[in-house]
Input
Amino acid sequence: MATDFSQKGLCGTIVCMVTGERRMKIERVISGRLKGLACVCENFEKPHNAAAILRTCEALGILNVYIVEEDVPFEPAKGVTQGAEKWVILHRFRRAERAIAALKEAGYEIYAAVPREGSLSLEELPADRPLALAFGAEATGLSEKLMSACAGTFRIPMWGFSQSLNVSVAAAIALYHCARARRRYLGREGDLSSEELSALRARYLELSLPPSQRPRDGTH
Amino acid sequence: MATDFSQKGLCGTIVCMVTGERRMKIERVISGRLKGLACVCENFEKPHNAAAILRTCEALGILNVYIVEEDVPFEPAKGVTQGAEKWVILHRFRRAERAIAALKEAGYEIYAAVPREGSLSLEELPADRPLALAFGAEATGLSEKLMSACAGTFRIPMWGFSQSLNVSVAAAIALYHCARARRRYLGREGDLSSEELSALRARYLELSLPPSQRPRDGTH
Output
């Protein structure tokens, strides 16, 4: 499974420009990054939901977020993300077919969040393979195209009169549970290869500098 | 531990006015209601966070929600709750001291959500006793009064640059995890006594009627 950040080498100049404390933070973060669990957001209509999901993914160590904006552009509310969009890898697609192809190419089995009888319980989702959890538009759910590409559907167990949750809440519960299950299965916090760690380290070091101090592409 | 809904007997007239399907739904919901896990919301500023938490509690089967509105009135966004406020028991307090006294009287051990080093991990919270999880204002957190009444603080394990989550997201993850742990500990879905079940059944039957058809207090 490949993440699509570019394989830049670590740049000595940048390392010197970033404080030791920040470098330690970067090491801690990259060592906990999971590529074996991805999040897919399709046609989200509410900017605060889009923003909350990015913030949740970043905080839980989920590296790859796939965005399908075939019907609705993905516009996370700025104040709510708290900069999370910098630290996850956003794969944006105008057409669902392209997103599906990219997810399959990257080795993910896709499961759709569908709160209805017959869906697997969240607890039944497999932890032994790379999963992508897909969440659809607040009112209408996932498109038929995305649904037909899924290995299955899942639901969060519920005990109330309400049979659904806010999408950013549902995503948080599902991603937290699956990230925990995946880490337990792997027996470690993160799952990046040493090459991927190097590339992500370089990316985060660069992003830790103010934009005016970042090297332009090709200068290192 | 007492819930404070009134101990009304089941009213035959109301039962006849509610469809069989609705009655089955009510039975399913009350059998999964947990009193051994409560949620405390203090001085929430954003109506959509207040609303999302009520909806989450209802869906997860958490019956008792304690509201402290000493500094800020609790005003959940109407469209977002989807009616959840009808199906949980809201205990509203203008002063934190009163809320604390009520929580202790009801037998809860209070744990405060505080995303910092030194807090217990969510996974370390006890499942063998009634817990109340307390969440504070979005910007400033919990008041000193509430903090000093807590048995401890807890945090959600995080792997990102961000060291906090949106409060409604944090509450959802924590309540889902603790409700699951509590149900596993108890070995059953709900924990109401037969008296409490009767009272809650009567309450839900009544609330299932349109307001114009509900008996006024004292008429049954």
